[in-house]
Amino acid sequence: MAEELIIASTSSKAERYATLIPQLESLVTGEPDLVANLSNIAAALKQTLNFFWVGFYIVKNDQLVLGPFQGPIACTRINFGKGVCGTSWKEQKTILVPDVEAFPGHIACSSASKSEIVLPAFKGGNVALVLDVDSDVLNDFDETDQRELEKVMRLIETLL
Q: GAF domain: which residues (predicted)?
């Protein structure tokens, strides 16, 4: 297992993702524990991309339950179809929100959150968990984030 990430802080966002994803693959290879892997992935994403909040919500008994994360304390449970995370789960797709205040039914776990991206991971055709990434900057996520974070989600699906 790697003890540190090797990412140039002066790289573009696309270059940081391109350097990070192979290191994530190496980090989780051979580790069977999902919580350990999600914890390291959350830490690596926050460290590399300086996200305000990054973490996972895991589907349990018809709710999303807070899993490994990095950042301020968070909402513990989210219902199906509620907020950005619950909507991503319900619609089974990535939701990119430039301004959380404009998203109907947004759940404000932190008033500092301004924009958000949520991505589902699937097991057996069903959403098993979502990755929730928040920024304290409006319109902070773009197509690069969506494309590269979706690659991270495909990696996570191999762990489920």
A: 39-157
